[in-house]
Amino acid sequence: MANLRLYAVFGNPIAHSKSPLLHNYVFYKLGIDARYIRYHLETSDNFRDLFFNLNLSGANITLPFKESLIESCDEIRGIAKEINAINTIVMEDSKLIGYNTDATGFYQNIFKFNIKNALIIGAGGSAKAIAYILKENNIKVSIINRSEPNLKDFRIRGFECHLSSEFKYQDYQFDLVVNATSSSINNVLPLSTSMLESIFRDSKIAFDLMYGKECKFLELAKKYNLKVIDGSKMLLYQAIFASSLFLNINNEKISKAMSEIYNTD
Ligand code: NDP
Question: Quick one: which of 94, 192, 214, 243 is 20 to 30 A from 182 by CA?
Fold first, then answer.
């Protein structure tokens, strides 16, 4: 028991999180003496104390703390620095190191397709992660959002941005269209039907970050024969990359174990 390592996912709400299922199964399959729990976090204040008091070896961070808990880390590595959001913390020599595996989790779904340009609908935290990983892989990115404030940060960082209501979609063609808004949670489209239909007519892949239920966005895309992808594998891949950081072992072993219990097809 003395060597048992403890991990946790922090968020609010958190009861729905599948992370304990995925990570505990990996520990079980790989014979690692560790447990992974859910933790309902009320505030990001004193997070460091909580982390050390719980004697954690690592953590995942979900909504709404991905940005605020950056300050609790001693160091931020990789794309998390650009995005200014973390979803994984690893304890290394008594230091808390923050990473972002959402971006690579997303990209793992689409890297095999020949995508030259992409439209991201939405300008929240996950849109930021996606915009960066696409740009890093030389894919031209356009971002549209229903309101201006969240676009500001994208504009500062040199992304092409438009207000949805002013977007001249007729002038563009996109290989990939990503719904990175939370519209599908409420089962509504992120844009008008006519605008989306026009965009889909010339596109190849539609991606909605939501997972677990049908959504109007992907239903409409299917009518135009696009390949459709939902957020379930993004969730799986971000967990695989996070587990690989926790355990310092390669993705393949973890991927094999997690895929056994998380069949997303
Ligand atoms: P944020 O709250 O940071 O951003 C939400 C965005 O959606 C904003 O741009 C907002 O516009 C826009 N928006 C919300 N409702 C509507 C609507 N009805 N029509 C048009 N635009 C709308 O959320 P996140 O970026 O963190 O998450 C977005 C979605 O991605 C969520 O559904 C989340 O569950 C999912 N997600 C999935 C992951 C996975 O692993 N599959 C990982 C991370 C997120 P405005 O700026 O005007 O408010």
Answer: 243
